[in-house]
Amino acid sequence: MEKRNLSLSHEAMQRHASEAERFLKELANANRLMVLCHLVSGEKNVGDIAEAVGLSQSALSQHLARLKDAGLITSERRGLMIYYRLCSAEAQAVLAVLQLIFCREHS
Amino acid sequence: MEKRNLSLSHEAMQRHASEAERFLKELANANRLMVLCHLVSGEKNVGDIAEAVGLSQSALSQHLARLKDAGLITSERRGLMIYYRLCSAEAQAVLAVLQLIFCREHS
DNA sequence: TAAGTATTTTAGATATTGCTAAAATAGAAT
DNA sequence: ATTCTATTTTAGCAATATCTAAAATACTTA
Question: What is the rounded average pLDDT for all residues in chain A?
Answer without folding.
Answer: 93
